[in-house]
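Researcher: Please predict.
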Amino acid sequence: MEKVVSRSDNLIYVVDDDPVVTGLVSARLEAAGYRVRPFAYAEECIAGLGEELPDLIILDFYFLKEGEVPMNGMEAYDEITRIAPEVPVIMLSAQEKGEVVLEFARKGIADYVIKDSDLIDNLQMSVKAVLER
């Protein structure tokens, strides 16, 4: 018997400069029936908001770009909430410091998922929970 995947019209932006993370996250979400639009950098995501508002943004905290200093996730979050305050954001990071996580919560981020070996499973549960709110 073939497994039936529930379909969704939810659009999710996935923003991470690591193509492996972006690819894995996008593939898992698409397999779960979500529409996904990947971006390597926060600036690209913010530009995309002018084209189509997503139902959710998954945003990395720290970006590296050869020869440039790209916007970090917190700066991007501030800009996203200025443009589209109704769009929830899940922050991704390897950062586990309590004060950083507390700052995310204080700013209103929908959830925080640590980049570890359980990233994909934890993120999928977080996405489902945030979109059901």
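Model: The helical segments are 19-31, 42-48, 73-83, 98-107, 119-132.
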